[in-house]
Structures are given as structure tokens and as C-alpha cells.
Amino acid sequence: MKLNEKQLAQVDRQIKRLVAGDSYYGKILKEKKITGVSSQEEFEALPFSSKDDLRNAYPLGIQAVPDEEIVRIHSSSGTTGKPVIIPYTAKDVDDWAAMFARCYEVAGITKNDRIQITAGYGLWTAGIGFQAGCEKLGAMAIPMGPGNTEKQIQMMQDLKSTVLTATSSYALLLAEEINKRGLKDKIYLKKGVFGSERWSEKMRKYIKDELGVELYDIYGLTEIYGPGIGINCEKESGIHYWDDYIYIEIIDPKTGKTLPDGEEGEIVITTLVKEGAPLLRFRTHDISRIIPEKCSCGRCYPRIDMIKGRSDDMFKVHGVNIFPSQVEELLQNVDGVSSEYSIAIAHDDEINKDIMILTAEAEGRVNFEETAKKIGEMFKSKIGVTPKITIVPVGTLPRSEKKTKRVTDYRDN
């Protein structure tokens, strides 16, 4: 999907603004003697930006406007080393709220809804993003923040929340608790808007059934405003993204070459109107594809497919590249196995060999030994490695109020 004339002009304006300033990216563009773009070819010749750049620019080297125009900063979650800090102008904050409100509208949420927000507040973009979009829409915000499951469920009943926003991990925890307490008939939820991590079909079905809600995947990342730059519609056939604010291209993660629409690769995002920290060709590491066809819902906003995972989520065992999405796809085809699993990888010095241990949950009605054997056989035939497998009862593995860490690698990298 090529830039249209308006988008090309917006990118050109961003470049000229950066070059005129003294920000981190302004200096890079000056060094490369880039002064603007007037064609798709010139755009695709622009250098990529990355999270490493943002760390190198720490704390506020990326800022592209004077201090007096910055009204807020956010920082990304789950990073190691230096955090990534993103400054926002008042217009950035308002644009983000407008995009988020649009997401709620696509999900069929109105000002009559009561939105229970369980995502984290503070430097993280999630909680405040969900709330700003809710207020822009005119719905009732119930800003619970994460944790305190007892109070979450009490407020859900007493305030008759109709929408739950959460990570999929915390939505699973709440669904399990509501199921355990037999409260399904005492809650009023109609919709769930979940983001920040990919989730398996098995987890999706459990949450949908136990909470009795329609599910919506919201997309975004701190570097590009935060959650709210896209969401799936009622047709559940990909994520609509707001191309009046961002431009998305898909690249081959190895070569950096832009791929044709329909081909799977890494999502690269350019902010078209962002003021505080504009980003050109930002590599997200999220894996998806642009869906070329128009959505049957009738909306004109373009779509990307559901996020398959991240290029940097890949881990290697015995020379085989493995993605968590492959593990989830395999487990969802095993009878009685839940969506929850964990993988530990270590090196056994005695035999000079890497060891992979998979712990998966299963319902009590199935034979754990046979289930482990079946998973092992499927791993060997479909993925090409044979892990050591432990089956535990459903509910044994820890649940998370934020994102769930699936893979722990103890090897010296």
C-alpha cells in the first residue's frame, strides 16, 4: 500500500521540521543529507528507526519541539537497559484520545457504556490511553488499574460494568475467578477490549465463553502514541488502523525490503502528524501483513492481519527457530490442554546439550502421561525438537495482571 499524496506531503513536512530542529533524528537526517521526500521510492530509501535509537537518545533527545510544548511523557514497559521515553504535546494527547475513541466506536461501544479499565497507569501508556479514549467518547470510565481482583469483581457487579479493558492475561485470570465463584450471571459485561500481547485461540474462546463477551483486539505501542492506533471490527477479519495518523508498511525483517500487500513480514510505522516525537519508518518487530481487500464491514480504513508474534520473540533450540505462536497453535489442538504454558531453556554442561522444558496445563479428565506423550510427538513432527514435558492441573501456572512471560532462557547468550 503506497503513500497517497496527502500522506507523502505529511512525511515531507515531518522531515523538514526535524531537519530544522536539533533533535536526535534531525541530526541523523542532516548527516545523511535528507531534506524531504517527493516519491514512494525516496520514502523507502529513508533509514529505519528503532528502539535502540530511542535508547541512544535517552532521556529526551528524540524531542522535536521546545520544552514548553510538552505536556506529558510516557515510557514503554518491559524493556531492559535504558527505558524509552516518549514526549507528547497537547495535540499528540488529543490525537491519541481521538484515535482511541474511534477504536471504541468500531467495537460498538457508546457513551451509555461503563468501561472498567484494569490496565496499568503511570508511565505506561495503557491505563491513561483507555481512559482518555473513554472520556473522549463520553462513556463512564471506571479507572481500577491492575490487581486487587476481589475489588475488580465487586466493582464489576456493583457498577454494572459493560466493557472490560485488560491484557489478555488478566482477562483470563478474571474469567477464571468469575467461573470459580459462579458469578457469570451476576456480571453485565458485553464487550472486552484487550491488548499489549498476542493470545491463542484457546485462550480467546475461554475468555469469550466465561465472560459472555464480544472480544476486540486493540493495537498500539508506546513509541507510536500507545494502544489505540488500530482495532478489529465486528467481522473479526484483521485490525483496521488509522491511516490519517499513521502509515504502515510491511518489510522483510532480514533484508529490510518493503514487501507487497498480502505478504507477511515486520510492521514498520511512520507517524504522519505527531509533534513531540515523530518517528519515520519505526521497526516494531511485530509480525503481520497488510490485507489488500476492502473489509466487508464497509469501513475504508486499511487493515493488517492479527499480530502473529514478534520477530524478536523467536528462540533457538538445537538449531531450530521456534516462535511462541507455533507452540500455542500446537497446544490448542490437544484435547484437555488449557491456553497456559511456560517454557524454560537451559544448557546441560555434563552432556553439552541444550534442554527445553515445557510445562502445560490440562484438565483433570485427561491422562497427563498420555497428554505429555502426544505433545512430545507433535513437537517432534511439527517443530522438529523434543522438549521435556510436564503436565500440571489447570490453574497451577501463575496468572499475570500484566503480560505473561512464556519463555525463560537460562543459557549464556
TrEMBL record:
Entry superkingdom: Bacteria
Keyword Translocase: no
The entry's keywords: Ligase, Nucleotide-binding, Phosphopantetheine, Phosphoprotein
Pathway: Aromatic compound metabolism; phenylacetate degradation
Pfam families registered for this protein in UniProt: AMP-binding (PF00501), AMP-binding_C_2 (PF14535)
Enzyme Commission designation: 6.2.1.30
All residue ranges annotated as the AMP-dependent synthetase/ligase domain in the record: 44-270
Biological process, per Gene Ontology: phenylacetate catabolic process
Domain AMP-dependent ligase C-terminal per the UniProt entry, residue ranges: 319-411
A GO MF label: phenylacetate-CoA ligase activity
Annotated family: Belongs to the phenylacetyl-CoA ligase family.
Subunit annotation: Monomer.
Protein name (Swiss-Prot/TrEMBL): Phenylacetate-coenzyme A ligase
Organism: Treponema succinifaciens (strain ATCC 33096 / DSM 2489 / 6091)
